[in-house]
Amino acid sequence: MKKNEISASPRNAEAIAELRKYYPSLPDNLTVGGSLDLRGTQITKLPDNLTVGGSLDLRGTQITKLPDNLTVGGYLDLSGTQITKLPDNLTVGGSLYLSGTQILSSENWVISGEIGSRNDNTSFDIVKDHVYCGCFTGTLEQFGQKVRASYKSGHKHRTEYDEFISLCKKAVAEMKGAKKAA
Question: 20 to 30 A Cα–Cα from 106, which one of 44, 92, 112, 164?
Fold first, then answer.
């Protein structure tokens, strides 16, 4: 195993729990093979270049900013944190949970208010063409197909999701226009 690499095991989870009692942050360039559950801890900062193979749970932490080059293979739960912006170089393989956060916009993201059947945030990574909505993750086109298959035209949730999709398409067009102008 490389330096600053942690594999998934109960023993390592206990070690991390012990570590976070005494240290408000973790070492730079840390790789965790499984999931990392930091909810409710006193950790105030995540290291740059953090890679978590599974899910990362930050609910209720004191963290106010996500690090550069954060990669999470599973879900990322930011519920109840003071984080206000998503970094442009964030990679999430599963769902993205933003309930109770102040994240309303970010340069490369479109983030809804509380909409749809979950009455929660729905997020779109413009650069990666990826939508996060509850347990759904996929492209904007796949999300539109799922919405059309799930709700009839005129249904409240369909209308809300359709408006979100329109906003996302507009953001994509604006980004493409800005790239052409540059």
Answer: 44
